[in-house]
Amino acid sequence: MTATSEFALELKDLRKSFGRSEIIRGANLQVAHGERVAIIGPNGAGKSTLFNLISGRFAPTSGDVVLNGQRINGLPPYEINRRGLSRSFQITNIFPKLSVFENLRCGVLWSLGYKYTFLRFLSGLHDANARAEELMRMIHLDKKRDVLATNLTYAEQRALEIGITIAGGANVILLDEPTAGMSRSETKRFISLIREVTVGKTLLTVEHDMGVVFGLADKIAVVVYGEVIAFDTPEAVRANQRVQEAYLGSVVADNQAGGH
Ligand SMILES: Nc1ncnc2c1ncn2[C@@H]1O[C@H](COP(=O)(O)OP(=O)(O)OP(=O)(O)O)[C@@H](O)[C@H]1O
């Protein structure tokens, strides 16, 4: 997708209520093309709700979500996907009984299905195979080409999921706690993998692990009570007094106490 606007993603005074409780309370954010952003904040602050608003699972109560310069408020997820945003979930959505290659090929075909008529879709099958091979190399699973997804390690399954997420060439990628459940060494390798496969793309993650946040993000968005209270470089966010008071101080204390 070509960059037609200054920002890949903008949230403008975004609000979301469930019944009488307003969960997102006027969130604003401007993410530049190619930026890697981690969304952090206390439990219940509204991070997942923001992701759900951006990816189209929920429609906002008011305000705008702008993707590549186009308002996408209230569009269904597949339309938003077609416009260049792809999301992977914390819960894996790979097909366990298909091989690595077949899973990736499905991801490619699925994304082609939205972009092409049926005839072009058929002629695209050859391209789909080539793209699936390319993705397999990108996620370092080419040696596991014919292994069923169910027989991969957990970290490999998460890598496969990222491969499927980027298969369609979306320029904005949303990852929900991409390293959750991984060991420290797997996490380290996985951060490198995410960095590699998202070069030139805009990345948003919801993340609790501060090691991942500081290893991956160019910028951090801090969400507290449904508002983005800070959006800056990791160093600036770490030094931000308001963030310290509202959130980061307690996380650092938790980590020192052996929590997560
Ligand atoms: N579909 C829904 N209906 C009603 N309330 C909801 C719904 N989805 C989320 N909420 C509420 O919105 C608030 C924010 O939840 P959300 O999951 O977005 O927070 P979060 O920052 O992602 O939290 P965590 O870090 O614990 O995952 C919570 O109080 C939650 O109960």
Automatic annotation (TrEMBL):
The keyword Thylakoid does not apply. Residues 9-250 form the ABC transporter domain. Keywords: ATP-binding, Cell membrane, Membrane, Nucleotide-binding, Transport. The keyword Membrane applies. Gene3D superfamilies: P-loop containing nucleotide triphosphate hydrolases. CDD domains: ABC_Mj1267_LivG_branched (cd03219). This is ABC transporter ATP-binding protein.
